[in-house]
Amino acid sequence: MNIQHKRQGQMELQDIYFYTDTIIDFKHLLEDDSIKLIIIQSLCYLVEHKLSRIFGYVIMPNHIHLIWTHLALNGKESPAGSFTKFTAHQIKKYLQANNQLQLLNFSSNKSDRQYQFWKRDQLAIPLSTIKTLEQKLEYIHNNPVVEKWALCDQPEDYRRSSARCYLKGIDEFGFLTHYKE
C-alpha cells in the first residue's frame, strides 16, 4: 500500500485517495437502485481489469465516496476519468429507456455534451497515513447513518457501502480489498 503525502489535484498511480464525486446540482439521481448498480458494475470493471483497487466506498443519493488507488491507465484515460465517462453514458442510456422526464433534468448547453450527470470538480485527497485512511473509512461508513440522510440505523445495514464488508464480512459485489491487505 503506497500511502504518501502528495499535493491535492491529479491522482498519481499507486497512491491512495479519498475521492468524492457528486451529481450535478446535488440532484438525488443515485437513489435509483438501477443507477447504483451502474456505479457498482463500473467499479467491478476497474478492479477486474487491474486498473484500480478499492478499499472503501459508499453510494449516497447524490454523491459517492471512494477510497481507492489507480494501478494503471485505461488506454489514455485515468480510471477516474473512465469511471465518470462510462457511468454517464450508462446512466444516459438507462434514463432514455426508463425515465425520459428525469433525463431532461440533466440537459446541458455545453458544446461537448448533450447531458451532464457528474459535477466537474471531483475531490481527490491523497491519504498520507493509515490513521487518515481509517478516519475517512469511518466517515464514509457513517455517512448513511447521519441525521441528514438517515438511510439506515447502523452502517453495516446500508447495502451500497463497504461497511457491510468491514463489519459483517459481506463483500456482495467482490471488488473490495481490505486496506490491511
Account of the 3D structure:
The chain has helices at 33-48, 79-98, 100-104, 130-142, 163-168, and strands at residues 16-22, 52-59, 63-70, 123-126. The chain has 181 residues and is α+β, with helices and mostly antiparallel strands. It has a single domain (16-168), classed as Alpha-Beta Plaits, CATH 3.30.70. Strands 2-3-1-4 form a four-stranded antiparallel β-sheet, with helices on both faces.
Summary of the model, kept short:
Helix content is 33%, strand content 15%.
Report the oligomer: single chain
Which percent range fits the helix content? 25-40%
Shape: globular
Number of domains: 1
Give short descriptive properties of this protein.
15% strand, 4 strands, 181 residues, disordered N terminus, globular, 5 helices
Summarize the topology:
Elements: E1 16-22, H1 33-48, E2 52-59, E3 63-70, H2 79-98, H3 100-104, E4 123-126, H4 130-142, H5 163-168
Antiparallel strand pairs: 1-3, 1-4, 2-3
Helix pairs in contact: 1-2
